[in-house]
Design goal:
Layout: E1 4-8, H1 12-23, E2 27-31, H2 35-44, E3 47-48, H3 52-56, E4 61-64, H4 69-82, E5 88-91, H5 97-108, E6 113-116, E7 119-120, H6 123-127, E8 132-135, H7 139-144, H8 146-152, E9 155-158, H9 164-192, H10 197-204, H11 212-223, H12 233-249, H13 255-269, H14 280-288
Parallel strand pairs: 1-2, 1-4, 2-3, 4-5, 5-6, 8-9
Antiparallel strand pairs: 7-8
């Protein structure tokens, strides 16, 4: 197959996926509205493009990782005008399904296929290729993209019709939201009880009480350092809102998700908007009256 792929959006996730695609031997062309991100792609061995149209003219398969509804609408409009017929756009963002449906319809008129392919995994997991792709849409288009998925993810699954990828991601993110706060609550209880947080991490992570969120975010909770954000609190607020609205439309109760939401809101109010969502541990620590330890070396995973 042609080893060229386009990356639209070079933020935390897009830059990590680009790096892994480059390691896998792909020629990665990338576009981002932020010039510094394009420069970083060039430094890592990729080929930045100054405009989205320039990228679309050169790539048959493009992967988009976008921060907002407005960004996807803008990208879909530009690609509808510039992309080649038969091109495929692998849309990995977490956004409302109706927004993705609108983008799919707009691109279809131009002969471009949009796949709904959200990712399971944090930015830290993306760096080490520990992602799972929930792919949905036409099976033939999915099959054309399998080598690309193999380049940046450890696994990928076709989960059915367009939109099922997002539905699967909402279910997964509900668990992430709850497990992240649960891990933070556990570390807070441990500190309140006088236990060493790093010892707790090493002891609990592999047991029945462990979880992927405990394993992934545990080191930053031990270190009390949330500055290397793999998912920023301010971005996560958008994801929480999407999941909540999705569940409400289905009349499905989500009491544990609802219970976790105020902790994330408090993280925003306490100035953690640009920090990793693991910072909910600092929020609970303050609530418990646990002294906030100085930043320290993170526990090794």
């Amino acid at each position: 197959m042609d080893k060229g792929v386009g990356m639209i959006g070079l933020g935390i996730m897009g830059s990590a996926m680009s790096a892994n695609l480059l390691k896998a031997g792909f020629q990665v062309q990338g576009y981002d509205v932020v010039p510094a991100r394009r420069a970083a792609l060039r430094k890592s061995g990729g080929m930045p493009r100054a405009t989205l149209a320039a990228l679309a003219a050169r790539c048959e398969i493009m992967v988009s990782s976008l921060p907002s509804v407005a960004a996807l609408a803008a990208v879909a409009g530009e690609l509808a005008a510039a992309a080649r017929r038969g091109s495929i756009v692998v849309e990995t963002s977490t956004l409302p399904i109706e927004v993705k449906e609108a983008a799919r319809a707009r691109l279809a008129k131009a002969g471009v296929v949009l796949l709904d392919c959200p990712l399971s995994g944090t930015g830290a997991q993306a760096r080490v290729k520990d992602l799972v792709v929930y792919a949905s849409g036409p099976l033939a288009a999915y099959r054309r993209c399998r080598d690309v998925f193999d380049g940046f993810a450890r696994a990928h699954r076709h989960v059915g019709v367009f939109g099922n990828g997002s539905r699967m991601k909402f279910v997964a993110n509900l668990l992430v939201a709850i497990h992240n706060v649960a891990a933070a609550e556990a570390f807070t209880l441990a500190r309140k009880a006088g236990l060493d947080a790093e010892l707790v991490y090493r002891t609990v992570a592999d047991g029945a009480g462990g979880s992927r969120m405990f394993q992934v975010r545990g080191p930053m909770m031990v270190a009390n350092d949330y500055s290397d954000a793999t998912m920023k609190v301010e971005v996560w607020q958008k994801d929480m809102q999407i999941i909540g609205e999705f569940a409400r439309k289905l009349d499905c109760p989500t009491p544990l998700l609802s219970a976790s939401a105020p902790i994330y809101n408090a993280a925003m109010a306490q100035g953690h908007g640009m920090d990793d969502t693991g910072s909910v541990c600092a929020v609970l620590g303050r609530m418990a009256g646990v002294p906030q330890a100085a930043k320290r070396r993170r526990a090794r995973r």
